[in-house]
Design brief:
By secondary structure, the protein is mostly helical. It contains four helices and no strands. It has helices at about 1-35, 45-75, 80-90, 110-140. Keywords: Lipoprotein, Membrane, Transmembrane, Transmembrane helix.
Length: about 150
Amino acid sequence: MLHNLAVGLPVMLVCLLLQAVFVAVCLRYYVRFKHARQAGISMGQEILLLTVVMVMTLFGNFVQMAIWAMLFMVLGEFGDFATALYHSGVNFATLGYGDIVMSPTWRLLGPLEAANGILMFGVSSSVMTAAVLDVVKYNLAGPGRDGGP
């Protein structure tokens, strides 16, 4: 059990740092776009903004799944990356299908990745929610008023 924690916790830390990078990039992009919208933006631009934020956060989650999959490959749990990535995605998204399981030696990495994944999806959801709420607030403020924070 301790060897699972010794291997899994550093990977979780790397994922947390990566998520922080993706959130910072999303926020920088959003703030730059927001300053540019002082003159008003179209609905298409709002959709593009929200799409970019969503895609960036999802990409961040996918990168983290790939990192876990690479760990599983290094540990010799899977013979090919596609299977390792599938298993990682099932863990990260907390689906828990159970159709592919790891050896008893490394099996506790699954729940560690699930804990990591649910936390990261929560962060991604909060970033997306903040962006959507800001767009709604801006539109409710009406023309000529800055509804953003």
